[in-house]
Specification:
By secondary structure, the protein is mainly alpha-helical.
Amino acid sequence: MPSPLTILYIFLGITIVLLVLILLRPSLTMSIGGRILALVAFVALPILCGVWGLSEHFERSKQTSFCLSCHIMEPYGRSLFVDDLTHIPAAHFQNHRIPADEACYTCHTDYAMYGAIGVKLHGLRHVYVQYLGTPMNPIHLYDPFNNRECLHCHAGARSFENEIHTPMMDQLKSNQLSCISSGCHDTVHNLDTLNKFKQWRPTE
């Protein structure tokens, strides 16, 4: 059974062939059948391929490998393998507390095309600076990290809703107290200290 991506390429090929055929022989559109063929070639198939391609890319963009495919993100990838479990991303990634193949997306669900309109516009800006401009250095979040990204996994967990977190739960849920910048869990992607630690490598 061919993969969805292979089928998409087949549809793209058919679309191109039909478009070229109609452009080279416009007389085909003189009949009803020819007009239907033109409608399929110029409207239906391009829309189908566009929506299908966007859906495939949307799913692919959740992959950790996609996020780390940009050179500027390489140190963030290395921070997932720091052999020191006080580093929050490393502890979550290495112990599979989050899906390893969707690590970035799991903790940054409001990023780029997954967030609100303003966030989607930030995503378009990233595409622009990646190919036509200069990416920000160092990289930073546009907005403070939202506790929602922690709570969508930890809320309701027995190990989390304990005598430490329960008294401050309202502050955590309202972001009055940050999980990662209040001094509790503040070792995140500490890029300037990466070289001080060994890199953990999973056994093959």
